[in-house]
Backbone:
């Protein structure tokens, strides 16, 4: 738990998650053109981002739902201290390699921390569990960057405070699913500033992290600076965790940014 909270990536190479029964739909052309991944909502069973229909669509949804449940059971077993505050978010299946035709802000091949424009987290942590199910043994290729405090200090001077009332306006207009906080506003600016900074993308600190087929890995993607360069066929499950549920709340981006800015952000 401490390693995760302080910006490390936990790799679990020997876990079992069998996809053989759904291989014909998982490894087919399952995602819509122009969509980075297939998205599943565990709360209502809604599947988006695929042209499949009928039985094939149902079987794909069942496979993604099964991964969602598997990932949740894994987190609750490995990190029981988080169980009470853990909230399950969306699940995704990523059948394609990194897309080269996106804007800089949407290009996940560029180093960044996660921040969601339409889904404010209001200070909560973003914990994600990934699994590489590539049938040909192809690795999922990441780059992992500098500690979050160094990343924030680098780009914080480029940020500006949110205008008064903006969070409420965005929510009323349904631009966001909830109230955007000063924390969300700041994290989005850090995300965008990093992705748009060509010099940082070319020469900023990073090291290679290649996750082989069959591997599972997890990290707090709101504090781990990362880029996904390549690799096909990966599942991902998102969880949200209140800062109060952490073993060391001071290690959260919320507390780090509040200390840097000298003001409350939620």
Residues:
């Amino acid at each position: 738990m401490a390693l995760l909270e302080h910006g490390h990536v936990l790799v679990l190479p020997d876990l079992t998650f069998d996809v053989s029964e759904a291989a014909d739909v998982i490894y087919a052309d399952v995602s819509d053109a122009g969509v980075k991944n297939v998205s599943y909502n565990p709360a209502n069973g809604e599947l988006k981002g695929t042209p499949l229909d009928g039985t094939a669509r149902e079987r794909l949804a069942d496979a993604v739902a099964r991964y969602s449940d598997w990932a949740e059971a894994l987190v609750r077993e490995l990190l029981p201290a988080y169980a009470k505050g853990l909230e399950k978010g969306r699940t995704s299946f990523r059948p394609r390699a990194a897309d080269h035709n996106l804007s800089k802000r949407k290009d996940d091949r560029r180093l960044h921390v996660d921040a969601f424009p339409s889904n404010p987290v209001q200070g909560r942590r973003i914990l994600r569990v990934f699994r590489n199910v590539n049938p040909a043994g192809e690795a999922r290729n990441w780059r992992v960057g500098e500690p979050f405090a160094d990343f924030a200090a680098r780009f914080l001077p480029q940020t500006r405070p949110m205008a008064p009332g903006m969070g409420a306006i965005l929510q009323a207009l349904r631009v966001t699913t909830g109230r955007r906080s000063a924390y969300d506003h700041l994290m989005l600016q850090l995300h965008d500033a990093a992705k748009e900074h060509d010099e940082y993308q070319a020469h900023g600190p990073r090291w290679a992290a290649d996750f082989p087929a069959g591997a599972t890995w997890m990290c707090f993607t709101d504090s781990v600076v990362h880029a996904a360069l390549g690799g096909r066929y990966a599942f991902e499950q998102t969880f949200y965790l209140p800062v109060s549920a952490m073993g060391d709340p001071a290690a959260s981006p919320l507390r780090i940014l509040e200390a840097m800015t000298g003001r409350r952000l939620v």
